[in-house]
Amino acid sequence: TFMKRTLLLSLLILCLVPIFGSTTLGGSSGYIVVPSADVAPSKAKSSVSTAYSATITSDRVIHIPSILLSFSDAVETSFAVDIGNDIDILLNGKWRFAKRETTSFAAGVLAQVSGVSETNDFSAQLYAASTFESSIMDFPSKTTLRLGYTFKKSLDSNIDFALGFQTPFFPEVFKEKVDFLLDFGNVSYSTTPSAGNAGDRGLVNVALRLLPIEFLTDTYFGLDIRALDLFDHKGRALSIGATISFRPQ
């Protein structure tokens, strides 16, 4: 079937392509569902990241494999497949057009095809993001503000708003190798997510992130454990994601 072929192709990509950076559920670099204004590092040469997320709800397991390419510390693009009750294709593009000391500004777009081979519904999310250094309870952190617009007729509100925070998690215990993530807003990783659907309401997610560890030359491994949609029992889910990245110097 088409679904099986897509899953096999996605797994093959994960096996063949060296995997960098920390990605959202939708495949772009960032927090849990909120993309940041930063891109995966790629100073001299392009970097490649592949990721896989397994999201567990009360009645099913959702698979999201993805691949991300970044260029010159300024541009990244990613491809993800959301395999739940049906199959959604997610295509991300992000351009960091300015950086001032510790603040970055980016513009991005997420183009989507929902219900591939069935309904083939098209939608797109345009956004602008600003990522800057901040502090939470005296701990250094990175904060991202996202504003955007969703092109999809069925929504009551097409204006998107989201915030993301990342800060060390008990740095003395975990030696600054683990971060705590929090993001919330009225937008998820796609317009038709298989879990954590913001719909016309708010969405709160938390996660612990093992920061990328270099285990081979220029090759890094990262791990996320996420809790999605904490305040809504219907959309609540647990997600585990792994990322392997290749960043040549």
Description:
This protein has helices spanning 2-16, 171-174; strands at 47-56, 61-71, 75-83, 87-100, 103-114, 121-136, 139-151, 159-168, 178-185, 203-216, 219-228, 237-246. With 249 residues, the protein is mainly beta. It has a single domain (2-246), classed as Beta Barrel (Porin), CATH 2.40.160. A twelve-stranded antiparallel barrel has the order 1-2-3-4-5-6-7-8-9-10-11-12. It is globular, with a radius of gyration of 17 Å. The termini are far apart.
Low-confidence stretches: 2-20
Query: What's the number of extended β-strand segments?
Result: 12
* Biggest sheet statistics: 12 strands, antiparallel, barrel
CATH class category: Mainly Beta
> What is the helix content?
under 10%
Helix-strand makeup class: mainly beta
Q: How much of the residues is beta strand, in percent?
A: over 45%
**Name given to the CATH homologous superfamily:** monomeric porin ompg
